[in-house]
Amino acid sequence: MVQPAPAPTRYRAITRSNVEGLGFWGRLRPETREAIEIVSQVLPFRTNEYVVDELIDWEQVPDDPMFQLTFPQKGMLEDSHYRRVRDAIWSGAERAELDALVESIRRDLNPHPAGQMTLNVPTLDGEPVSGMQHKYSETVLFFPSHGQTCHAYCTFCFRWAQFVGLEDLKFANKEADDLARYLRAHPEVSDVLFTGGDPMIMKSRVFERYVAPLLDIETVRTIRIGTKAPAYWPQRFTTDDDADELMRLFERIVQSGRHLALMAHLSHPVELSTERAQLAIRRIRATGANVRMQSPVVRHVNDNPDAWVDLWTSGVALGAIPYYMFVERDTGARGYFEMPLERCWNIFREAYQRVSGMARTVRGPSMSCLPGKCHILGVTNIGGRRAFCLQFLQHRDASLVRQPFFAAYDPRATWFDKLRPLTASDEPYFAMPGVETRLTGVTVGASDASTIDDD
Ligand SMILES: *Cc1c(COP(=O)(O)O)cnc(C)c1O
Ligand code: SF4
């Protein structure tokens, strides 16, 4: 199907510094404007005109899912934090005083869930290699230093910490070299997953510098790119200056005999509803690359089965492959977005029941936690007790993968660290490196027991 190309548009970021000058600002209710001003001191936002003009339905604001996903909301800060920031601003506090307050609140928000900085960092010649993570044998995550920002900041994202100037927490790796050397030393790695930030923020020629050396390494069979660009800036693949260059690079990767997958972070069906987004998916697929869809299930955005049915079926119609539904992780505005695991499972199940096998390639809900990726199979009764049935889709110890196990039912549990083994035989699945595991009483894992996921 041939479509006329949409007119090019220039990328223009919308942040706290220019939002007040934009047309929609005056149409927002005063309390919505106040919330954006106050909360964005702590949790910055960044979006762009495409999201504002084509994805947000301003008649539905503040409930509109894309508005919730991209703009700060009052409930993202605890009341006491919100009041302290508001009072500081209203009383005309000095910049330094406000900065100190904001910093202390950010530190409370678990900016780097445990394990992310200290575990899984590989070594080369005995030295830790920054900008890389190797947790599961077959797959290396790579964070190119030029890709450490995003087209927009999703309000629930753990990566917010990278965007707010906590420099010491930043992953960076200028040396694509290190990556290549590491991969040559580790032939067991078949997959390289570019993540960030958003690697698609990079110019095509910069991305090429990172990816081209991998095409000389035979053991690398799959290159994945985790990106939100098809949703937030599909022009990256269509009308941007170097969009064609990127498509040629994709073709080159595919022609080298490798699987190229765009791991598209898609949260809501409206993201696939625009002509620009659909054209982007078509162009990507025309290079021979695959598009796979993944994202967390979050309150206020996609907490209903209809949204997922619509997302998966419209994705499949465009040739995209549903991959993971994640559980919202334990960082940032978690309290605003998280849901009980049972509810996540119900949303998944109800949506899954209504799609054909073509969309049932999706797995979830899955928690990317410290031991691995934990798949919630469901809530059931076993030996007269109510329990979660679980399995690991990934685990540091591969022998534990795909072994069903049980956790005591807890209707309020929102993350793996809240779950307890149902019986003694379930205990090995709850073991955390360096953390004691017991059947009763003592906490299993720290409250921050989680690690990075791969959106
Ligand atoms: C999710 C994840 C991967 C990729 O896992 P797949 O199941 O192959 O998609 C790799 N490394 C880390 C650390 C991850 O969290
Ligand atoms: S990394 Fe993904 S989820 Fe996080 S802000 Fe960027 S696009 Fe959003």
The total domain count is 2
Radius of gyration: 22 Å
Which distinct ligands sit in these coordinates? pyridoxal-5'-phosphate, iron/sulfur cluster
Kindly report how far apart the N and C termini lie. 30 Å
| Proportion of strand residues | 15-25%
Count the beta strands. 15
Query: Could you say which structural class the secondary elements and strand pairing correspond to?
Result: alpha/beta
Number of helices: 14
Helix content: 25-40%
* CATH class descriptor name of the largest domain: Alpha Beta
CATH architecture classification of the largest domain? Alpha-Beta Barrel
Fold blueprint:
Blueprint: E1 13-14, H1 30-42, E2 47-48, H2 49-55, H3 65-70, H4 79-90, H5 95-108, E3 123-124, E4 127-128, E5 132-136, E6 139-142, H6 160-163, H7 176-185, E7 191-194, H8 204-211, E8 222-227, H9 229-232, H10 243-255, E9 259-265, H11 275-286, E10 290-297, H12 305-317, E11 321-327, H13 334-337, H14 341-352, E12 363-368, E13 372-382, E14 385-395, E15 405-408
Parallel strand pairs: 6-7, 7-8, 8-9, 9-10, 10-11, 11-12
Antiparallel strand pairs: 1-2, 3-4, 5-6, 12-13, 13-14, 14-15
Helix pairs in contact: 4-5, 12-14
Bound molecules: pyridoxal-5'-phosphate and iron/sulfur cluster.
